[in-house]
Write a structure and sequence with these properties.
The two termini are 52 Å apart. 77% of the residues lie in helices and 0% in strands. It contains 14 helices and no strands.
């Protein structure tokens, strides 16, 4: 019996060694992936952290021999200058209004269009869908000149209405593309049961399907907010220098940099950048779980 046990043990030893050799590459790639993630985190978090710390420094500290050193005195003076003298507060309020309204209507129109394209079959369904998707492959800067003339022909240049309408059109392709795939993963039995109980198509959509699609709606809402908040080309084309009181946050930050000349207020510039970064950072941290669940819900189902 002992001889048989030893023979089985000897026979299993090569198999175990082969298994370990096969698993080693997986472990190596896993370690390399962790190293890559750490490096990527440093590359992303490092500049943001330095920007925040530079807002508490002085010009000599930023351009001196030790630009990476910590501030000698944590003063909020640069934040006050950026908020009052550079009018960052006004630009931020303008941006909150424009992004809030445009995101609301983008999600309303985009979710309605995506639901119809995903759940109903009619002539031209795929053509309309591919027309929306084709907007993803068209660079925005190629449409700036015709876009300006179209908006001007409607008399909407230098107005929030023109910017909001362009933001909605700019964000609809990705919204429809994302939500169409998400609505296809939802069960049809619930919608059919609602229709049998007497619900109209509109009521079924708003009271049944939209709550079920909440993870996807939250995810794409955050992406739209981030994209519209950081938009620079569209506002600078649609809002000229004659309406500085209607500028958005990106225009205001660019103006701080270009109008300073040789007397650049680097702490004020970094304070303005920090004011623009912090709201989006907070939004992403608060809704991080919803974003992840929305991106993976379709794959899990």
């Amino acid at each position: 019996m002992a001889l048989q046990t030893d023979a089985v043990r000897v026979a299993k030893a090569p198999r175990a060694a082969t298994t370990r050799r096969r698993q080693n590459p997986v472990g190596v790639f896993g370690a390399l992936s962790h190293v890559a993630l750490i490096v990527w985190t440093i590359l992303v978090v490092g500049p943001i952290l330095w920007t925040f710390l530079a807002s508490f420094k002085t010009n000599p500290e930023i351009v001196g021999d030790a630009p990476l050193a910590l501030p000698h005195d944590y003063s909020w003076a640069a934040w006050g200058r950026a908020w009052d003298k550079a009018h960052v507060g006004r630009y931020m309020l303008n941006t909150v209004f424009v992004v809030g309204v445009s995101t609301f209507f983008t999600m309303l129109f985009g979710s309605m269009a995506a639901y119809v394209l995903a759940r109903y079959r009619f002539w031209g369904n795929r053509a309309i869908y591919f027309l929306f998707v084709s907007g993803l492959s068209f660079p925005v800067f190629l449409a700036l000149v015709p876009l300006f003339f179209v908006v001007r022909s409607f008399g909407l240049t230098d107005t929030f209405t023109g910017v909001i309408l362009v933001y909605i059109a700019y964000s609809l392709p990705f919204t429809v593309f994302f939500l169409t795939a998400f609505f296809k993963t939802l069960p049809t039995s619930v919608a059919e049961a609602a229709m049998m109980d007497g619900c109209s198509h509109t009521r079924t959509f708003f009271q049944i399907m939209m709550p079920m699609a909440r993870p996807g709606l939250i995810s794409i809402t955050i992406f739209n907010i981030l994209g519209q908040w950081n938009q620079y080309l569209l506002p600078i084309v649609l809002l000229s220098g004659n309406v500085e009181d209607k500028w958005l946050i990106t225009q205001g930050i660019a103006n701080i940099n270009t109008s300073a000349g040789y007397e650049a207020d680097w702490p004020g510039l970094f304070a303005a950048l920090s004011m623009a970064i912090l709201p989006m950072l907070i939004v992403y941290i608060v809704f991080q779980r919803q974003i992840q669940s929305g991106l993976t819900a379709g794959a899990v189902k």
